Amino acid sequence: MTVTSLQRPFIVVSLLPRLLNTNGDAGNARVLAQRIRWSGHDAQVVDVHSRADLPEHVDAVSIGSGTDAALLPARDALRTLVEELRVWSNSGVPILAVGTGWELLSWGIDLADGSVLEGLGLVAGQAVPRATRATDDIIVASKYGRLIGFENHARDYVGAEASPLGRVVYGSGNGDRASGPRIEGLTMGEVFCTHLHGPVLARNPGLADHLLRAAFSRHGLEYSRGARAGSVDATALAARNQVAVRLGQSAE
Amino acid sequence: MLARWRKPGGGSAIPGVVVNRIAPGFLATTLNGFPLGLVIVTGSSGKSTTTKMLVAVLRAHGLSVFTNQSTANISQGLTSALLERVGLSGQIAGDVAVLEMDEGHGALIAESLTPRVVALTNVMVDQIDRFHDSEMVAVLLAKIAARATETVVLNADDRYLADLGSSLDATVRVARYGVTAEVLGQYPRGLGYADTAASRLSAGTGLQLTRAVGRDADVQFPTGGHSIRLPARGIHYAVDAVTALSTAQATLGERFDPTIACTALSAMPAVFGRGEVVTVGGKTIEFVLVQNPSSFQLNVDSLEAGTEQILVIIGSDVRDPSYFWPVDTSGLSHVLIASGLKAHDIALQLAYDNVAVDRVEPDVPTALDAFLALPDPASGVKTIIFSADGMRRTRAHLGLVSNAEES
């Protein structure tokens, strides 16, 4: 018998939205939940500030980016959830981590004053200081489509060379490399890490729908994009094309 | 920068450049030399409104006030403006100087200034491009506050400012103001501060905002309560008014009269672009200016229920479309047109917040014409929510007085 629905709402967890939401990246949880609803299923966003907030079921996870002042409290809060994060990432629960949220999942963060903030060690690599803050639009060629967003970070990322999210067409991404193409982001299974902050999933529904297919397939369900999502994605395409054309790229 | 100084109404900054070269100490010496001294208003948000309110209150008390029109021309432009006021005797006419300062500018220029009173409005997470962290903003504000010779007026509901107040030199008086727990309770999302202080002012320890509904607000003074009519709707204007009143009290001392102050505040004309109501071609329109995520959220939350005709214009000044994503726009329910250079981006956000968007029209004049052509709404007034760039384009297209100095 084919399964056609989940007997409960899909649960999208927004991790530490008070500490990690400088650019509205926590909105990515909202984006996933809306797209699930538009596909005809029930969905709910659960804000998790500490272990006490953890829901029984977790179908997708969003971690945003915060200020450097929030790095230590955010790392300490994430540490209390490290076992869950390990279980989710090993069992194919899609996880999106943006900016400092990504850096905290890494081996560690080399801070500008020479000290190192140890990360959770869930994904390979580490964040290292860069000469000047990267603040600009960014365009990435990826297998989830051409991703367009905004980056604003004071650190590069090294150690993601084996499995980047994509290749930088415009912008800084993970930073300069001695050789090879410039890359952006990191993927590990269904864990997606990126510098594209803010509503990366709204602007790039190709990536959002990949995460949703992963979330659905864990339950033997097939995700299909709803009609409402279709018209909203046309708006996202117009927004992306505007940036692409301004930066000398072709419209899609 | 020159282009900015040449905007209509901005005056010429050239004499200022010349004087600053010939007599580099002129600006500081003059500003420090007013009989009632210098008052500086600074903070993340609300300083422009607060400054205008403060000036109105001081003038109502019979003072002659020297003030700046904006923070944009802070050094050279100020010198030019001061020169216009120098009499034949070489003296500047005026009792007191009131300056609005940008936190960045302020920390630089404040080195040479000795303000009698420094007023701090709040620390908000905004202006991401310039000041990445609220901590950094707090440090800049602390530098300005440290220059105060007599009183630092501060918002006790803002955790960063409350902390700053307790670390100031003991020779400086701290005048605290804030809202009551009841007022704060009406805003479950808070008042937009980067961090809200854990507790409210206890009664009698500073000016308190005890009520804010629409354009009406009540303020509790040590001598009793007074009501004021705000120049625009919204809790942030009410807090700005309390900031201005508290600063006026610090500046005037014994001469401060709450009745004169509240009457002067209530008589102020609506602030440009912020809850300003205009009539164009017989149609009434309310303007709502959103400058940062906090003011966007507060404006959405305080919009008249049932407003059925809304135009949103987000322009090129919003460099990063992520900027407004922390805002929950769902309260708008239905937007007729999304416009401006970032029309697609704001339409996308509205869509994910379940707000119906009928039309996306990046060209501002086209959007305005279509919006104005609609018959008057059955409920609420035609409402235009815009960024500063959207406001400029709107005013230009509708032939309204330009307001280049508002920032």
UniProtKB/TrEMBL annotation, chain A:
**Ranges where the CobB/CobQ-like glutamine amidotransferase domain occurs:** 42-204
**SUPFAM superfamilies the UniProt entry points to:** Class I glutamine amidotransferase-like
- List, alphabetically, the Pfam families matched: GATase_3
Gene Ontology biological-process annotations: cell wall organization; peptidoglycan biosynthetic process; regulation of cell shape
Keywords in alphabetical order: Cell shape, Cell wall biogenesis/degradation, Glutamine amidotransferase, Hydrolase, Ligase, Peptidoglycan synthesis
State one molecular function term (GO): glutaminase activity
Q: What is its EC number?
A: 6.3.5.13, 3.5.1.2
The pathway is: Cell wall biogenesis; peptidoglycan biosynthesis
Which residues are named in the active-site annotation? H197
Q: Does the keyword GTP-binding apply?
A: no
Q: Give me the residues that bind substrate, please.
A: R133
Q: Which InterPro entries match?
A: Class_I_gatase-like, GATase_3, Lipid_II_synth_GatD
Catalytic activity entry:
L-glutamine + H2O = L-glutamate + NH4(+); beta-D-GlcNAc-(1->4)-Mur2Ac(oyl-L-Ala-gamma-D-Glu-L-Lys-D-Ala-D-Ala)-di-trans,octa-cis-undecaprenyl diphosphate + L-glutamine + ATP + H2O = beta-D-GlcNAc-(1->4)-Mur2Ac(oyl-L-Ala-D-isoglutaminyl-L-Lys-D-Ala-D-Ala)-di-trans,octa-cis-undecaprenyl diphosphate + L-glutamate + ADP + phosphate + H(+)
Q: Which domain of life is it from?
A: Bacteria
Task: Tell me which family the UniProt entry assigns to this protein.
Answer: Belongs to the CobB/CobQ family. GatD subfamily.
Please give the function described in this protein's UniProt entry: The lipid II isoglutaminyl synthase complex catalyzes the formation of alpha-D-isoglutamine in the cell wall lipid II stem peptide. The GatD subunit catalyzes the hydrolysis of glutamine to glutamate and ammonia. The resulting ammonia molecule is channeled to the active site of MurT.
Q: How does it assemble?
A: Forms a heterodimer with MurT.
Q: What is this protein called?
A: Lipid II isoglutaminyl synthase (glutamine-hydrolyzing) subunit GatD
State the species of origin: Cryobacterium glaciale
Its organism's taxonomic lineage begins at: Bacteria, Bacillati, Actinomycetota, Actinomycetes, Micrococcales
